[in-house]
# Entry
Amino acid sequence: FAPWREAAIEHGYSAIAAFPLFIKEKVPSVLLVYASEANSFDKEELTLLLHFSEALSYGIESIRLKEKNRHVEKALRESEQHFRFMLDVSPIAVRVAKNNGHSYAYANASYSRFFNTEISKLSAGDPEQFYADQNDYHDIIKLLKQGETVSDRLVRYSIPNSDDKWGLSTYIPIEFEGEPAVLAWFYDITERKKLEDNLLLSEEEYVKAFDAVPDALSITTLFDGEFIETNHAVSELLGYSRTELIGHSILDLEIWVDKTQREKLTTSIKNTGKINNLEAKFRNKNGDILDILLS
# Structure
C-alpha cells in the first residue's frame, strides 16, 4: 500500500480494507474499502465485507458466463440457420425423424419430391410407410439403437401414385432440438437399378441360349487355353463336366492330340482375328481320339 499512502492521506483516508475478488479461482482484482478514521473496521464488519466480496465475485463471474452463453447461443442459432438453409436447398432428399424414427421433425423439398408427397402431409405420417419391405426399416432402426451408422444401404421404396423407387440411403443417430433423432438422406438410383436388372436379365438369357445350342461351344483364353465358359454339348463331346473344365487349361487336360494344330489356331486368330473349319484331333476324358472341325 506504500505507493498510495500519501495520496490516501491527502484525500482524508486513515483506514483501508482489501478483499480479493475470485473469478474462476483466480484473483484478477481487489475490492478496496476506505474509511476516514483509523481502526474503523471491526471484526464483524470485516467478516461482512468478506462475504460481500465473495458474493460480488460470484456475481461478476455469472454475468460474464451469461454474456459468453449469449454469444454461444447466437453462434449456434446462426450455425443452425445456415445448416437448415443448406438442407432446404439441397438436391439430395433429407429428413430428420424422431420417436425412434417414426415421426417427422424435418423434411426438405427434395425429400418431398422423392416420395411424391407434400411436406404438410409428411408431418403427420410415419417414414416407415414408404418402405416396400418394412422389415428393412426395422433392421435399420435396430442398428441405430445400437449406436451404429447405416451407410449406403440399398432400399426399395413404395411411392404413392407412382412406381417403386430404389435408393441408396444413409442413417445417422443425432440429437435434434434437444431430442434423440435420426438424420437420413437418400440418393435416387432407380434408373441405374433398372439398367443393372436388365443387364442381369440379358446375361441370364444369354447363358440360357448359349447352353441350348446343340453344337459344342466354349470360351477359352487364347494362349493358355483356360476354359471360361462351356455349354452342355462340350461336356457330352469331351466327357468332362462343366465344373471339371471351368478354370482349367485345355493344355493341362491334354485335349489337343497334336499341339501344332493348336499353334495354327492361335496364330490365325492373332493375325486375322478368326479361324474357320480347322480340322483337328481331340482326346476325350476316356482317352478316345475324336475328329473335330473347329471355328
